[in-house]
Each structure stands twice: as structure tokens, then as C-alpha cells.
Amino acid sequence: MSPLEIVAIFLAGVWAGTINTIVGSGSLITFPTLLAFGYTPLTANVSNTIGLVPGSISGAIGYRRELNGQRQRILWIGVSSALGGLTGGLLLLAYPGAFAAIVPILIGVALGLVAAGPRLSRLLAEHRHEQAHRSGGLAILFFASAIYGGYFGAGMGILMISLLTIFLPDSLQRLNALKNVLAAVINGVAAVLFILVAPVNWAVAAIIAAGSILGGQIGATVGRRLSPRVLRATIFVVGIVAEARLIFG
Fold first, then answer.
1. What domain range includes position 172?
2. Structural domain count of the chain
3. Residues 178 and 67: beta-carbon distance below 8 Å
4. pLDDT tens digit string along 39-64?
5. What is the dihedral of CA 196, 32, 16, 190, to 10 degrees?
6. CA-closest candidate to residue 108, choices 227, 21, 25, 12
């Protein structure tokens, strides 16, 4: 591995960790970087997933103040997230290319949900009869999102924040903090699976991990200072860029 390659992968890890903490879609930076240096798609994907887990943890620590009082949410959504992440990881190993065609569609839907999130949340609150029904719906949808996250994960943060905005009446900053913890759970479960059975390039994973840890702290510092309107606009911009990269390469 040349010095240029090391620096490029590290910087990609920093940027991905920053973007993941604020919004999501950091894999759209690191994954293409690894492909550009000649790594196979499967090796790049699994090494990238493992490397970004410490960044998600770093971002969650940076948002620890906003996590106060959210322990129960972490537990009940975390279970479905973990199960979905494991399922997605297994699907990746069994069918490495099956989801590629629908990723742009998923991100496009997520952006629409982000835009309509506050209104949908109010409508849902007006018509809900039982909190358990509301919570159960979120857990099921998070399981489905986590399958995609364990499989690839680009845009997973946008999907998660859109669902949290719709189902949970809380500030966008607190929901973003919750999103970072759940992202760490999803990627962490998939990473354990990949460590056991997948072709991991440990040098690549370690470099991305070092960069993403730094990026997680940068992202938390910046993200916590953004107003809800600016944060929502940031989600849109990153989502549109992610959509363009997936469609046009």
C-alpha cells in the first residue's frame, strides 16, 4: 500500500465519519475510493463496514448529551436494528449484487420522507390510538431499513432519520443522536459477521477506522450546532449528491 493510498483512504474515512454523524451516506465516499484503488466490491464493502463502526460510536459519544432519556428507545429499536443488520450481512454474502438497482429508489423515497416528516408525524399523532402500535410499526420499518444497512448502507442514515422524524415526536438533534447509536448497532452486527466469514482487508479497515473516529468527533461538533432547518437542508443536499453518484457513477 503506497503512502498516497494510505492518505487518500484515511481522508475518505474522516469525511465519511463526519458525514455519517451529521446525516449519513458516508459509504458513498469510502466505498468508491476503495474501488478506485483496485479492491474488489465485496472486500471493499466489508472492510468499509468494519472501518466505519468506530466512527459511528465516536459520533454517538459526541452526541451523548442529546441521548439523555432515550435508553428505552435504544433498546427496543436496537433489537430490530441488530436483527436487520445481521440479515443484511447474510444477504450480502449470499447475493452480493442484488440490491444495487433499488438503492437510488430507496434514497429518493427517504428524501421525500425527510421533507414530509414533520407533517406526517403530526398526522400520525392525531390519528394514533395506541403508542404500542406506533412503536411496533417503527420497529418493523427499522428492521427493513437495517437489512439494507447491513447489506450496503449508503444512505442508511437518511432512511433512519426520516423514519424517526415521522414516528417519534422529538427534536431533530435528539433523533440524529439516536440515529448514530442505531447505525453503530446495525454496522456493528454486520461487522462481526464479516470478521468471521468475509474477506476483510484489515489494513484498509484500520485506516478507515482511524479516519472515521476523527470524523465522528468533527461531525458531532458541527452537527450539534446546526439548527433543525439547516440540518434538514444538509440531509437534502447530501441525499441528492448520493442519489447522483449512485445513478451516474
1. 3-248
2. 1
3. yes
4. 888 898 899 999 999 999 999 999 99
5. -20
6. 25
